[in-house]
Amino acid sequence: MERVTSADGTTIAYDRLGTGAPLILVSGATADRRADAQLAAALAETYTVYNYDRRGRGDSTDTLPFAVEREIEDISALLDAAAHDGGGAAAVVGLSSGAALAGRAAAVLPLRGLVMWEPPFMTDDAGLARAREYTTNLNARLEAGDLDGALTTFLRYVGLPEEAIDGSRQESFWEAGVRVAPTLAYDNAAMGGDSVVPADVFGRITAPTLVLAGGVSPDFLPAAARAVAHAVPDARMNILEGQTHNVDPSAFAEAVRGFLGA
Predict the structure, then answer these.
(1) Strands (DSSP E) found in the chain
(2) What pLDDT digit, counting tens, does each position of 119-152 carry?
């Protein structure tokens, strides 16, 4: 494990693995670098991967008050670390809501390339209404200090059945999820709080961009990927056939290599 200090003094922990051009892996909601270890290992067959704990997770610290700009500064600090290591400009790969954060970072930071995996924006009225309701409920739980309720609210929003949520309470995942529940607000902020594609922000991205979605993912995720690709100048959009939101590491790494090269 290595560490870098962000602009506001927050310590960001990361694993550096592999050799080749640098690549920063940005996790989605509730995930830390351990959750993405298999993806990082697959990408490390080609790249030097910086697999980090987003602030408030794993071995990273946190500093309040939160703003999305602080997480962009964290990515900037990792870009500086990669440059200091002699790797030059890095690519950024974002997963799920981490893809939304990666896109916001790409709008203001110089990147070698950007890959976004299934940013979960909504493109229909029903989905947008669900997103607004989720934001209201999540904020209420967090303001009340009800971390268990915040995690439950998130799992319901992403479609986990009640029986699966109840079963998760008996697993080690639950304790870890409750511990990072405050950071659900961070992901929701990266999504804009309303899950509308931020076309004005993404329109400022200049890095070569690939947006990916799974062929057997829920329909709203490929629809979101298409909308994001439309918002980013000259972006490409591909479907990985047979893949769900929990993408196979080898298939994902192959798609990234096909776009970014070695």
Answers:
(1) 2-5, 11-17, 22-26, 48-52, 91-95, 113-117, 209-214, 236-240
(2) 999 999 999 999 999 999 999 999 999 999 999 9
